């Protein structure tokens, strides 16, 4: 882990330049990034201008750059600025924010949903991460791979004191995602939760929040090469699925024959989904998070009889909302949610995506802006 010392606002926060540095997708559909000067925008009514100091780089940014997600309504625009794990300082308030709790100099984050409508069914349920009219940062709106970005004062995430900006950035996406999933599984202290993909980018944070944050007993499942990071992050038990003939039997053995209270499926693997319900005890919940690529495959072991007689639940969870983000950053501040990361420069972004494509990134890369 690389330490950063940039928790204080830049000295020149009030001097807002006419243009600033941004990394743009100059040829969406291919791995290509251009670092250019763009006009620094004026915050509109209810908006704040954020002087970003850090941005995490997420695999979803890669997918947006490559136009890999057919579910998005239109191809990524040429010249779009990507990024959705931004941390920085409020540099200017737009009109109408005289009585807003957000002030110039506050440290805030911009996450996957940069703005939401507050009126659709998802928003009314407090599930603003899947707002029907939400603006995905770095796809609909210029994202966080730049020095200045806009966000609604009511929707930027306050970053707690005592948490490093670079460490906070990945929490805004990966951390929020696993915390929201653990909430849907309703995991409480002393309960067993299985984390599938325990050593991955999401999984190791889930191990930390579940064990150190919630006091749960974590059974991590992953490739043996990921054991160290899973255990170090908080997995009490670890199952190497490549060396274990009957993973479900192993989960039963570890849970006194009863099964786990919850399972988080963080891997994008249909095989993992096929096993997940078989790990559950009576009344347990399996939460779907990783999205398998290719053909749509039903969850193999989700037969009605199995669900009925054990009263199991299977649900999905997409990123997380504003409350999830605030709670996740509090876990991070207290050291329960931690992520491995290294820092890089904005100019290195193309190489970071190349490393991502080649599977060479451990944990996260955080850009210093
Ligand atoms: Zn992300
Ligand atoms: Zn909405």
What does this entry look like structurally?
This protein is α/β, with parallel strands linked by helices and 369 residues long. It folds into two domains: 19-159 and 339-368, Alpha-Beta Complex (Quinone Oxidoreductase, Chain A, domain 1), CATH 3.90.180; 176-316, NAD(P)-binding Rossmann-like Domain (Rossmann fold), CATH 3.40.50. The protein is 24% helix and 25% strand. The protein has helices spanning 59-65, 121-124, 165-184, 203-213, 227-233, 247-254, 270-275, 304-309, 322-333, 349-357; strands at 19-25, 34-39, 47-57, 80-81, 86-93, 107-110, 113-115, 135-136, 148-152, 157-158, 192-196, 217-222, 237-240, 260-265, 280-288, 313-316, 341-345, 364-368. The strands form four sheets. Strands 3, 5, 6, 9, 10, 17 and 18 form a seven-stranded mixed beta sheet that branches. Helix 10 links the parallel strand 17 (341-345) and strand 18. It is globular, with a radius of gyration of 21 Å. The site of one zinc ion (ZN) has 5 residues, from loops. One zinc ion binds next to loops.
- Put simply, the count of helices is 10
Give the overall average pLDDT.
94
Structural class, from secondary structure content? alpha/beta
CATH superfamily of the largest domain: Medium-chain alcohol dehydrogenases, catalytic domain
Provide the list of bound ligands, each named once. Answer: zinc ion
| CATH architecture identity of the largest domain | Alpha-Beta Complex
How much helix is in the residues? 10-25%
- The low-pLDDT segments are 1-5
| Secondary-structure element string | EEEHEEEEHEEEHEHEHEHEHEHEHEHE
- Proportion in β-strands: 25-35%
- Our Rg estimate from Cα atoms comes to 21 Å
């Amino acid at each position: 882990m690389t330490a950063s010392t940039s928790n204080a606002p830049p000295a020149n926060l009030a001097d807002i330049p006419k243009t600033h540095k941004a990394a743009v997708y100059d040829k969406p559909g291919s791995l290509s990034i251009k670092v250019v000067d763009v006009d620094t925008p004026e915050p509109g009514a209810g908006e704040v201008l954020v002087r970003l100091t850090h941005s995490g780089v997420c695999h979803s940014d890669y997918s947006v750059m490559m136009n890999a997600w057919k579910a998005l309504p239109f191809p990524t625009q040429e010249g779009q600025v990507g990024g959705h794990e931004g941390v920085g300082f409020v540099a200017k308030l737009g009109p109408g924010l005289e009585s807003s709790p957000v002030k110039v100099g506050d440290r805030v984050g911009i996450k996957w949903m940069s703005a939401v409508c507050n009126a659709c069914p998802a928003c009314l349920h407090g599930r603003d991460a899947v707002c029907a009219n939400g603006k995905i940062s770095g796809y609909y709106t210029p994202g966080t791979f730049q020095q200045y970005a806009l966000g609604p004062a009511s929707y930027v995430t306050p970053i707690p004191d005592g948490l490093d900006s670079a460490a906070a950035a990945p929490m805004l996406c990966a951390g929020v995602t696993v915390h929201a999933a653990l909430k849907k599984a309703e995991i409480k202290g002393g309960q067993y939760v299985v984390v599938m993909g325990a050593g991955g980018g999401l999984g190791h944070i889930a191990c930390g929040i579940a064990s150190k944050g919630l006091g749960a007993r974590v059974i991590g499942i992953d490739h043996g090469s990921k054991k160290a990071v899973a255990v170090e992050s908080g997995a009490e038990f670890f199952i190497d699925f490549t060396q274990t003939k009957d993973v479900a039997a192993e989960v039963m053995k570890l849970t006194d024959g009863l099964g786990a209270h919850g399972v988080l499926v963080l891997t994008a693997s249909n095989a993992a989904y096929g096993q997940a319900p078989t790990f559950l005890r009576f009344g347990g919940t399996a939460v779907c998070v990783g999205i398998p690529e290719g053909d749509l495959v039903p969850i193999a072991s989700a037969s009605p009889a199995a669900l009925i007689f054990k009263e199991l639940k299977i649900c999905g969870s997409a990123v997380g909302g504003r409350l999830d983000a605030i709670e996740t950053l509090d876990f991070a501040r207290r050291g329960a949610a931690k992520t491995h990361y290294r820092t890089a420069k904005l100019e290195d972004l193309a190489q970071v995506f190349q490393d991502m494509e080649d599977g060479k990134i451990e944990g996260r890369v955080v850009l210093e802006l």
